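User: Could you walk me through two proteins back to back? I'd like the raw sequence and the C-alpha cells for each, with a short line separating them so I can tell where one ends and the next begins.

Assistant: Of course. Protein one, sequence then structure:
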Amino acid sequence: MFQWSKKVVKSVTFTPEVADESLLAVVDNYLEQLPDKTFSDICKEALWQALCVPETVKPSPKTATTNSVEQKIDELQRQVTDLEERFFAKESHRLESIEHHILQLTQQIAHLAVMVTEQPVIQSSTPSATVPEVANTTYADNPPEEVDPVISRLSQFLDDF
C-alpha cells in the first residue's frame, strides 16, 4: 500500500487542445462564481464522484462551518452598529444640552455686561432694584440649587459697585 505524507501535491496539466482549453475556461468561470472554492476543491469533488465513493466516507463540506461563522460575524457587526448608534444618539443629546447651557450662560453674561456698563449712568437707588431682577431672571431659567460659578463671581463685582 502507498504511504502518503501529510500534504501531497498533485498537478493537472492542460494541453492547448480545444477540449482542455474549454474545460479550463469552464473551471475558471466556476471559480469566479464561487470564490470560496479552490481548484483543489473542484478536483477532489470530481474524484469523489468519479470513483463512486459513498457519501458516508466523504468529508463534511466546509460551507456549513463557513456559513455559521459568517452568520456570527454578521450578528456581531449588527450589534456593533446598534451600539454605535445608541452611543452617538446619547452623545448628541449631551452635546445639545451643553450647547443650550452655554447659550444661556452667554445670554446671562451679556445681560450682566450691559448692566455693568449702564450702572454708572443710573442713580444709586436704581442698581439695587435691577440686581434682584437679574437674580430672579437667573432663577427662573435655572432651579435655585444650580448656582453658576461665573455668575456668582460677577455678582461679587456688582456688589462692590
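----
Protein two, same layout:
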Amino acid sequence: MVEALHLGTVGLAAVGATCAAAAKGRGKVLDVTNSIVMLIAMIEAVAGFNLLPAVGWSLAMLTVAMASGVQHHLMRNLSSSPECDEMALHRNIGTILMAALLICMEAVHTSLPDTGHSTHGSTNPLGILLGAGAAAYAFASLWQACRVQKRQPLDRIESVAMGLSVLIMAVIAF
C-alpha cells in the first residue's frame, strides 16, 4: 500500500514537472529546475538509491525554491508590476513543504523498528503541524485551480497535482 502511495506521489510530481516545463512565463528555468529536483528526490526516496541522504535532497529543494522566490521577486520589482507569479509562489511553498516532509519521513522510518507492519500515526507536534500544513496546502491548491476562469489549463493541472502529491506525502510520512 505504501509503495503504491509512493508511486502516486512520483507520478503526480512528474505531471507537475511536465506542466512547469510546458507553461509559458518568465523565470521558467528555475521553476523547471525546482520541479525536476523535487521529482528526482522523490524518485530517489522511493527507489532507495541513496545518492544523497534526505537532508541533502531537502537542502537542494530549499535552495532552488529560495532562488526561484528571489528571482520572481526581483523580476516583479523590475517590471513595476504589483502582481506576483502565483504559480511560482505555489510551487515554492509546495517544494518547501515537500522538503520538510521528506526529512520527517526519513526520520520516522529510520527510528521505527522493522516489525513488518505499519506503525504510522504521529503524535509529534511537528508532525501534526506539517500534516495540517499539507492539508491546508492541498485545499489551497484545489481552490487556486478552481477560482480563476482565465487560468491556463496547465497551471490548474500543476496546482492540483502538487497539492495531492504533498498531501499523499504527508500521509506516507505519518
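Confidence is low (pLDDT under 50) at residues 115-119.

Let me know if you want the two compared in more detail.
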